[in-house]
């Protein structure tokens, strides 16, 4: 019930269900997100690190979509943004979305 996929596909959730979802906590799965950056002398590879969940307590993940979302926004019915609809792909996207 507290999965991102459930929250994205069920928009008309009652207050009682939202309270239960909040009680269950945010989903924090290990995701397979990687990015390769090209540098002047070599390529740099970055991989998802689940410690990001510790730094951003509002962050949750969806293994089905392999993306990150704002848990509070999903539960409370947030606006139409990448954090509530599309998801973001990791640290680079997080920085861009927070600016």
TrEMBL record:
<protein>
    <recommendedName>
        <fullName>Zinc finger MYM-type protein 1-like</fullName>
    </recommendedName>
</protein>
């Amino acid at each position: 019930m507290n999965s991102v996929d459930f929250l994205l596909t069920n928009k008309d959730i009652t207050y009682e269900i939202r309270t239960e979802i909040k009680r269950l906590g945010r989903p924090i799965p290990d995701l397979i997100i990687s990015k390769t950056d090209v540098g002047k002398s070599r390529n740099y590879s970055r991989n998802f690190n689940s410690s990001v969940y510790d730094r951003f307590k509002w962050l949750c993940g969806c293994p089905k979509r392999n993306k990150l979302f704002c848990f509070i926004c999903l539960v409370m019915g947030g606006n139409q943004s990448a954090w509530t609809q599309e998801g973001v792909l990791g640290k680079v996207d997080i920085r861009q979305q927070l600016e």
